[in-house]
UniProtKB/TrEMBL annotation:
<dbReference type="GO" id="GO:0006633">
    <property type="term" value="P:fatty acid biosynthetic process"/>
</dbReference>
<keyword id="KW-0521">NADP</keyword>
<dbReference type="GO" id="GO:0048038">
    <property type="term" value="F:quinone binding"/>
</dbReference>
<comment type="similarity">
    <text>Belongs to the short-chain dehydrogenases/reductases (SDR) family.</text>
</comment>
<dbReference type="GO" id="GO:0016616">
    <property type="term" value="F:oxidoreductase activity, acting on the CH-OH group of donors, NAD or NADP as acceptor"/>
</dbReference>
<dbReference type="InterPro" id="IPR036291">
    <property type="entry name" value="NAD(P)-bd_dom_sf"/>
</dbReference>
<dbReference type="InterPro" id="IPR020904">
    <property type="entry name" value="Sc_DH/Rdtase_CS"/>
</dbReference>
<dbReference type="Pfam" id="PF00106">
    <property type="entry name" value="adh_short"/>
</dbReference>
<protein>
    <recommendedName>
        <fullName>NAD(P)-binding protein</fullName>
    </recommendedName>
</protein>
<dbReference type="InterPro" id="IPR002347">
    <property type="entry name" value="SDR_fam"/>
</dbReference>
């Protein structure tokens, strides 16, 4: 496994699902890890589990990534504990309910945009400012995107637009900060199982849109088409390496186990 010894890694939305697997992969590689989440129950469970395994190499904070002051507090706490920030993984996200534009409430639109797009913008903003002022220059930002980042008919209007925005934010940040030693890339993921984003369907979904989306692509079969969370986490660790990040800068890597079949 690649090494992350001595690095400080911040992963958002990481008290469960993919974010937790990413965080644990970096911990196993020697990194100090900071995670945030909004779910206090999950935070408490992870804190209890990791205290037995990783001692003082982690920090967990309840944070709403759409709140700029809370994001800055998270960055400040990370640096206060570990001295610096090296890697940011923007994983926190929610799904919409598959509503098309005509049926998407403004409340749902605003909530999805706040977490999926404004959140990564705010964490990126705070992270680059912190990395720029560190004595040992350089850092990596990895954004978790989706098939919906480049395919327009994969979900509802809000989620699709938010994930397309992630790809644009990735490329814009990569273009400006590369000469400062800060490299940004995105992983565009396909179908996943065992993740918390399915919580978004608790109140149901727009079945007409969902059925049209499903009919427009190859069937999704858990265990066959889903990308293993551990593989995604290993790829994040790979992208964070000092010899890989510069040549990956600006990349939006499709990492979806060829689903839907392309």
């Amino acid at each position: 496994m690649a090494s992350a010894q001595g690095k400080t890694v911040l992963a958002t939305g990481a008290a469960g699902g993919l974010g937790k697997v990413i965080a644990e992969t970096f911990l196993a590689a020697g990194a100090n890890v900071v995670i945030c989440d909004v779910n206090q129950q999950r935070i408490s469970a992870v804190e209890e589990e990791w205290t037995r395994t990783y001692a003082d190499r982690f920090l967990i904070k309840q944070t709403d990534v759409s709140d700029e002051a809370a994001v800055q507090e998270l960055i400040d706490a990370s640096v206060a504990k570990f001295g610096r920030l090296d890697v940011l993984v923007n994983n926190a996200a929610i799904m919409d309910d598959f509503s098309p534009a005509g049926d998407c409430s403004k409340e749902l639109w605003d909530r999805v945009m706040a977490i999926n797009l404004t959140g990564p913008f705010l964490t990126t903003k705070a992270a680059v400012k912190q990395i720029e002022k560190q004595k040992q220059a350089g850092g990596v930002i990895i954004n978790i995107g989706s098939n919906a980042s480049y395919m327009g008919f994969q979900s509802g209007a809000a989620y699709t637009v938010s994930k397309a925005g992630i790809m644009a934010l990735t490329k814009n940040t990569a273009g400006f900060y590369a000469d400062k030693g800060i490299y940004t890339m995105a992983l565009l993921l396909g179908g996943l199982t065992g993740i918390n984003i399915v919580d978004s369907f608790a109140k149901g979904m727009h079945m007409e849109m969902y059925q049209k989306v499903m009919a427009n692509q190859s069937p999704f079969e858990p265990g066959k088409n889903d990308t293993p969370l551990e593989s995604i986490a290993k790829y994040c660790l790979f992208l964070s390496q000092s010899d890989i990040a510069p040549v990956s800068n600006g990349s939006c890597v499709v990492f979806n186990k060829n689903w839907p079949v392309a």
